[in-house]
Each structure stands twice: as C-alpha cells, then as structure tokens.
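hi! just following up on the protien thing from before. the input was this:
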Amino acid sequence: MALTRRVLYVTPFALLPRTEGHRKRMAMTFDKLIDEGFQVDVLFISREYDWSSLFNPDLFKQLQSLGDVAHFLHAPTPTEPKGDFYNIDEWWPEQADDYCRWVFSNNGYEMIFCNYIFMSRVFELCDRSAAKILDTHDLFADRHKLLAANGLSAEFFYTDKRNEGTGLDRANVAIAIKDEEADYFRRISDPRVITLPYVEDVAIEERLTDDEPGDGPVKFGFFGSHNSINVKNIVEFVRYLESKAPPGGYPFEFWLYGSLCRRLKGPMPSYVKLGGFVRTTAEFYHGVDCVVNPQYFSTGLKIKIAEALAFGAPLISHRHSFEGFGAPLDAAHDCADFDAVLSAMMDVVADRSRLRELGQASRDVQDRQTRECERQWGRILKGSLFRQNWLYFIVNVECFNRVRFYRHIVELAFATFSKSFMICMVADTDDDTDSLWRLFKRKANRFGHALDPGEVVDKATWLVFDDPAAWASLTAGRDRVVIFDDAARMVADLSRRPPPDLSGVDCERWVVVRSDRAAGAPRHRGHDLPVNYFRWLPWDMSVVATGDQYDLAAEVWVLRDEGVGPGWLAQAKAAFPRHRIRYFGDGDVADLDGTAGAAFDLMGVVFAQKMIPELVLSFSLDDGFAPMKAWFTANGIALREYAPYVAETALEPNVALGLPRLSEFSCLPDRAAPVETVTGAWVGSGWRRFTNMLTEWAMPGAVGAPAPLPVAPI
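and the predicted 3d structure came back as:
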C-alpha cells in the first residue's frame, strides 16, 4: 500500500449538480485531488439558499459518494450585513466552530483546501500543521459598489479590502482565478498568491470538429445563468444591437440559452431567439455556429469562455470576458467594446471560413491553459510554494495496541510536534481492523505501511519507535534519525526477541533517546553512536514542551490505596468543606462521599479534561501513581505525601524529616505567593533540548544551537 494522503475539502456550496460556474470550478479542483490519489473528506457548510431551507436526500447520497467522508453542517440563509458590507466571518455560522474543532481533534490532513474567502475561518480552527490552500474564486472587496455603479442591487457576499486581506492572511497559498485578481491580492495581503487557470474537461467525442459551415443565417449563441450580472450585460448588448440594426434586420440569429431567459422581459427583436434550457451543455455548443460573450463588466472568471475553449468552439469575446485566459490568439478574442463584438460577428457572416480560424484559436488557447494549469498544480501538490518540515513516525502496530505505556510515548510525542511539523505515520503492517492504531493514524497528515524510499520527503526527520534494523531500507544513509530506545525494547519484549542491536547499521549521526542515564560513556552498546540521555518522560511532553493551558479547579484530589482506612478519607473530606473532593485509586468506592475513579482516570482528568486541583493529598505508595506525582511536582501543583503515616510500619527518621507535618494537613497552598517548582533539573529539561534539536534540524539557526546535532549527555 502506498501512502495515504488526506485532504479536507471545505465548500459553502454543494458539489453537485455540476451545471453552474462556481460548481464547475470546484469540480475541477476536487477531481484533481482525487485523481492525484488523495483521500478527500468533504466539509459542506451550506451557504446556499436551496440547502438552507430544503434537504434533497437523493442528491445528498450522491454527495456522500464523492469523497471518503462527507460532513454536512446546515446553516440558515445568510442575512443582510450588519453594516455597509459583510465582515470576513459574517457568513461563517457560529455552530461551525465546535464542529470543526471536533473534526480536527480526530483527523489530520496534509492539506485543507478551502473554497471562498468567507470560509477562511476554518484555517484558524485547525491547531495542527497542514497546508492551508484558499481558492478565492472571485474578489469580494467593494463588489457591492461595482454592482451599484451598473445599476444593480448588492447580492451574494461583499466586503472591504481590510476584511479581504484578513481572510487571505489566514492561508499559506491563495489561488486566484486570473492574473488581474492575483495582482490585487498581492497588494493587500502577504501569503503566496498564484494563478490557477480554470480549464474545462470535455470528452473528445463531444468536442467540435471543423465541419463545413451550413446554409442559412449564422447562429451566434450565449449560454448563461440568471444572475443579475449576466442579465444586465445581455440586456445592454441586445439594446445596442437594436440601436445599430439596419432596416431589414441582421443577417444572423443571436440565440440565448440557460436560466437567464427567465429574467429577460419584454418583446425581443426577431433576430434574438430564446432557446431556454438545454438537456446537456454539449447540446448548446453543437447547436450554434459561434459563441459570443459580450460581457463588459463582472467579477471573477467567465466559466462559459472556458467551456467554449474546451469544446473547441469558434468564439467572439469582449476583452473583459477574456481576462484570465492569457494573451488572445485572435483579434475576435480581444474586442474592446460592443462595436468590436458586432464587427467580428459581421466578419463571420461575410466569410464563414472565419469559423475554422476561430475554432483553431480556441483549441490553441485551451492547450496553453492546460499546460499552465498542470504547472501550477505541480507547485501546489509538491509543497514547493511554502516550507514544510516533516517527521516520520515508525510504529509497531501490535505494541501500540497492546502496551499502554508504548502507546503513550507515541501519542504524546505526536501531541508535542503536530503543531509545528507535518507528520507521517509509518506502520509495520496494514492489519489494523478495529484497533486503536486504526483511529490514531488518521490524526497524522499522512500514513502508510509499505513506503517506497522515493515517496519520502527530502530532509525529513525520523522518530523510530521500533527496532531500527527492521527499517534499514528507509533509514539507511539518513542523518536525521532518532531512536526511542525504550519503545524499541518494549517491541522486543512483546515479541520475545533480544533487545535491538545497531551493529552494521549506517548510523553515524543518529541519536538515541532513552530514559535512563548510563554510568559509562555516552555510546550505544559499544557502537560509535551518540546517545542523548534526554531523560524524557511522557508527562514532560504534554506540558513542558507543548505549553498547554489547564483550568485550576476548587478541588482537592486524594490518591489512595485499597488498604487506606476510612478515617483518613473522612478527615480529608472534613478538612476541606468548601472544596470538591475527588478520590483516585483501587478498591471499593461505595462508602466514599465524593467523586471516585480508578488510578488511570487521574491522567484522563488532567490530559483530556485539562483540569488540575489546588492540592493533591497522597495516601498511596502505589508505583502506578508515581508518574503523575512527578508531573504535579514538576508543574508547581502542591503535593503532600502522607502514605507513610497510614502504613502499618513505623516511620524511619530520615523519612519523617522529609514529610509534611500532620498539622499542615488541611492547609491549602498560598496562591498569592509565586509558585516554586520543586523538582530535579532533569524533569522537562531533556525534552526541551530534544525539541530544540528537531527545530534546529528543520530550521537551522532557529534556536541558536551552534551545532546541527547536540550529542553531549545531560
């Protein structure tokens, strides 16, 4: 199996049916991602009128079949703006925040591909590394002013330059649909801006051929939807034709098709024909001799121009309508005004061989646009437009599923680096049905189990949680490899193999991370391999490295053994009447007046619920609590150890000297005083050095490390 590369495709409009221009543009980008082998999840947050009030189950089933997972979030029809224009997030429904956070907490994506600038808030809700690509489709700053200048009421989304710049700044790469808009985006914002041409894909058998022109009047045609810009342009052009018409009328017919016919009012001159709806797009292009697009004002790109080019149709276009399709290859593609459009139409009437010339010009422009589109897609998909730092996690699936501590090592290493690195999970098997690994791997940007070395990103860093000798085909010759020795030993123990041995492995510049400090020289079992004793601990990773914020609750937590007498527990309850008491430990909890949970639940409350207490009272010498006791101490949370008092054996003098006095039993720590972390120098410091090392590898000079690889033991 090759790599699984995942994309979240965000859209305010349904991807089906593919009839209107904006859906055609989305179909182009969506289909390209599918064709490139991406696993695409669709996040459809409805911002169109039909889906706000209606639900089409048949169409929704078709939408679900398009991608890997389909998320649908209903939202009401957008209301009028609160001011003179919409703020950037005014079309973003409030309920989408929590939904998106939930999606990102369970899924990782190599790319978030967002359509439309008013959906760009999705980038801010993703707290992990991902390529954030914004397809703008159109420019929306002062769009209402453009419409007003042409006698039209404001419609759809419109904003100002400041808000549009805010939306652009959220992306790594902003895609413009034509160069004129790309230049504008670069003036108001900082992200990398590229132009991705719209190229229509038409089956070869549907494309036009250079048939001999027929007899009778030349049939010119325009095909468009009922939006007010289309209607305004066509009405103006028909009025122009009427003003210039000779006494006997024109020797051609001008056919109009599409939903715009519903909005054309009043009688039309005899040479203007209303064709209405067609069953297929091809029916229109095969039914006219030449396409005419006279639009002199609009925003965005003229999708119908792209259609005509794809069909190889003879085309006459206003200069404005041809923006976004490169330099015209025929004068008829560059008509400066209605006079020039009509003149080009009359040239065709006078010499029908012009139809062949115009058809060839369309095919030549189409070929040029296709090549440019492929070039820009290559830049997007290869990640060459922005810096991406990759970590590859090599994981043993059986050990991940069966050994809890191994799983914590991998999970917390992921939590530490997923915000600053792109992560690829590499497993030793694809047999992960109904396993913990099956769910966890989806949080990575990529995952797979049988990589070809050619699929690996250059200058990537490898974190190996397995025997490195088993992965020599991928890691050999690489100088950014980190072996988690403790994890590799767990894999060996589970499979009853000897500990991993690096004999004969090309590992001159590798780093071995282990939790214990060796007594001898910093070498790995006699081989010439630097060993960094980072003294890592999973509780260090979660807080010291990631900087997570925790809520301080008015609670006292009691750690207990099964043999602790009820008097001690009752005294804890009585000593803190204004606080909620939580008990953690094994044994019967029926008689406890407070919330109780098993020892392992303690980690869940801290790391999952992000909650910490004002005070921890320990009546337990159970080793299972030892990691969390160290965590509380390292992070300035008051911990008082009374376990020796409740033990049956007498206290040793040296033990008694180190214990808190019983008179302090019910004294809460003074929160007004600065918190003093009472801890050994090893807690957290090793993990900080480790994170600095990886940062230095990815971005030399970022953390001021003088050497590319620190090898001195701590």
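The first helix runs from residue 21 to 35.
Residues 545 and 691 are 8 Å apart (CA to CA).
cheers
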